[in-house]
Automatic annotation (TrEMBL):
InterPro entries: Gypsy_RT_Integrase-like, Integrase_H2C2, RNaseH-like_sf, RNaseH_sf. Residues 2-42 form the Integrase zinc-binding domain. It comes from Trichonephila clavipes. It comes from the Eukaryota. This is Integrase_H2C2 domain-containing protein. Gene3D superfamilies: 1.10.340.70, Ribonuclease H-like superfamily/Ribonuclease H. PANTHER family: ENDONUCLEASE-RELATED.
Length: 135
């Protein structure tokens, strides 16, 4: 069994001595549909299966964020729900937003989740280091 050099390699080798109209397409189609190539060529595609999500090591390492809406406008002008889930603890928080813009979502994420988490972390560190040498 002789092998091909892929569509481009086969085209290059044949083009050294021959030419016809539509030659590149013909060679590409031929190599793509060659029964021996289909049968014997190793697949470059990974076997299908369930994707494995990396397991986060600590709280707020990985967040899942989504938007729900637009909903009918509330009395205070909110039409969207920003959903934030901590993938480690499965803790979910919902925030009503007037607009579903990147700026609005970013501000809410930073002010309502990240800064609060930072405050909790800092309090924990301060408590940990409040032994006599650190007082």
């Amino acid at each position: 069994m002789a092998g091909h050099y892929g569509a481009e390699g086969t085209y290059t080798r044949i083009a050294k001595n021959y030419y016809w109209t539509g030659m590149r397409k013909y060679i590409t189609d031929y190599v793509k549909n060659c029964p021996d190539c289909i049968k014997y060529k190793a697949s470059n595609q990974k076997p299908s299966g369930l994707l494995q999500t990396p397991v986060p090591a600590q709280r707020f390492e990985t967040l899942a964020i989504d938007l729900f809406g637009p909903l009918p406008e509330s009395k205070d002008g909110k039409r969207w729900i920003l959903i934030i889930e901590d993938c480690t603890t499965k803790w979910v928080e919902l925030f009503a937003l007037p607009n579903a813009t990147a700026k609005e979502c970013s501000i809410t994420l930073i002010e309502e989740v990240l800064l609060r988490s930072l405050k909790v972390l800092l309090r924990s560190l301060i408590r940990r280091h409040s032994s006599p040498p650190y007082q």
